[in-house]
Design goal:
The complex is a heterodimer. Chain A is mostly helical. In chain A, the strands form three sheets. A three-stranded mixed β-sheet of chain A has the order 6-5-7. Chain A has a two-stranded antiparallel sheet with strand order 1-2. In chain A, helix 4 crosses helix 7 and helix 6 packs across helix 7. By secondary structure, chain B is mainly α. In chain B, 45% of the residues lie in helices and 0% in strands. The chains are: A mainly alpha, B mainly alpha. Chains A and B meet through helix 1 and strand 3 of A and loops of B.
């Protein structure tokens, strides 16, 4: 009963979340411009490129600690593990390189993308598992472990590429997926009644207790991320789940359609930012 | 003696707001402990956790999306309104970031009464 009421209340209060400062009611391109301008105005001292560094783009003190951490990045072990896994041959004699022939010069910038044949958004992590399945191998778990390591290796090789997600105009289903992700981003949920935007748009740069809230712009550029708290690399959807749960909302499965559409919108908003994964975080 | 209990009644009456039934007829000593209980609820991370967004006197490393909770009696003389802000802030600001503590049953009605007493004492 209690849960039902909470859910109802959460539903009723969704759509109210479009704050006074950014309301995205346009085409993806108009949305992106409004979204990015919001952060440029809010953080006038942060160069556009630097939003790729999350909270460290807006806080000097934390940035210093982080730069020290980056001198001996802990994700290097994960990149090495990912490299080994990537080059292990499948039972059929093929390997990941056959699915991602351009891996050496970077492939991550091609994800997420709209796949018209599947009628779905395909993410880097899903593509890794699709490759395994197409070759008769067992898919990997999405949040952490081998898949996150392979993803970290591919992120590393893709550093420097510019995020350039497209919503093809000739397929209305692509726009629908984008709109779905956008709705998710602005819908307030959970007992605490927060949307993603509550924390990363409207209160970005402020603190919840001692947690500084990062701007959403650039958040996706450095995933997967090594977190001290996880003591390993974890994927973007693992973070989505954590951010959903901390407002006492139900989380969705990693690589569920909900989270893939969310990633589609979330990454589109960062078009123009350079990939710099994997990142290191507290 | 009679004068004393009348006084107690008056204080309790002033303390009880919309649904302050709990407080009705409580002697002044209890009122102080109600404020203490309210403080404990407000600062409990699993309950009010108010310091994640508000500076509260005597609490370190508070967050800052909300205004500091200071001089409340002067700024929010109307306790009934204060209770609405805490019970469901959306009634006063539809876009409020503040969690609807009562409407979403994060706190019970009784806990909210106590938190109101605490906040009003700041």
């Amino acid at each position: 009963m209690r849960t039902v009421r909470i859910l109802l209340a959460a539903l009723l209060s969704s759509y109210l979340a479009f704050g006074p400062s950014v309301s995205l009611a346009g085409s993806p391109e108009e949305d992106r411009e409004a979204f990015q301008n919001f952060y440029k105005e809010r953080f006038p001292n942060t160069p556009f490129e630097d939003f790729a560094n999350g909270i460290y783009s807006i806080d000097k003190e934390r940035r210093q600690e982080w730069e020290q951490m980056e001198e001996f990045p802990q994700y290097e072990l994960d990149i090495d593990a990912g490299e080994a896994l990537f080059h292990k041959k499948f039972a059929n004699g093929k390997g990941f390189a056959d699915c991602f022939p351009d891996y050496e010069t970077g492939v991550r910038q091609n994800y997420p993308h709209w796949d018209p044949k599947r009628g779905e958004v395909v993410t880097m992590e899903w593509a890794i598992n699709l490759c395994l399945e197409e070759n008769g191998e067992k898919p990997l778990k999405y949040n952490r472990g081998p898949l996150a390591e392979i993803s970290a290796y591919l992120a590393y090789l893709s550093r420097g590429h510019v995020i350039d997600v497209k919503v093809p105009k000739d397929d209305p289903r692509a726009l629908a997926a984008y709109e779905d992700g956008k709705r998710f981003y602005y819908t307030r949920r959970g007992q605490l009644n927060f949307s993603c935007a509550s924390c990363h748009v409207h209160t970005s740069g402020l603190k919840l207790r001692s947690d500084l809230l990062s701007p959403a712009l650039g958040q996706v550029s450095h995933f997967p991320v090594y977190r001290k708290k996880w003591s390993a690399v974890g994927t973007l959807h693992r973070r989505y789940g954590g951010c959903n749960r901390q407002v006492r909302a139900a989380s969705f499965k990693p690589q569920s359609r909900q989270y893939r559409n969310l990633e589609y919108f979330h990454t589109y908003m960062s078009n123009g930012i350079r990939l710099n994964g994997p990142g290191g975080r507290q | 003696m009679i004068r004393h209990s009348l006084l107690a009644l008056a204080i309790a009456g002033a303390l009880s707001s919309v649904s302050g039934a709990v407080l009705l007829f409580s002697p002044p000593a209890l009122a102080a402990s109600v404020i203490e209980e309210g403080r404990a609820i407000a600062l409990d991370r699993r309950k009010g956790n108010c310091m994640s967004c508000h500076i509260i006197p005597g609490v370190s490393s508070a967050g800052n999306p909300g205004p500091p909770l200071i001089a409340m009696k002067a700024r929010w003389p109307d306790k009934a309104k204060l209770r609405i802000q805490i019970h469901d802030a959306r009634k006063l600001n539809p876009l409020s970031l503040m969690p609807p503590f009562g409407a979403h049953e994060i706190l019970t009605e009784e806990e909210i009464d106590k938190v109101v007493e605490f906040v009003h004492s700041l």
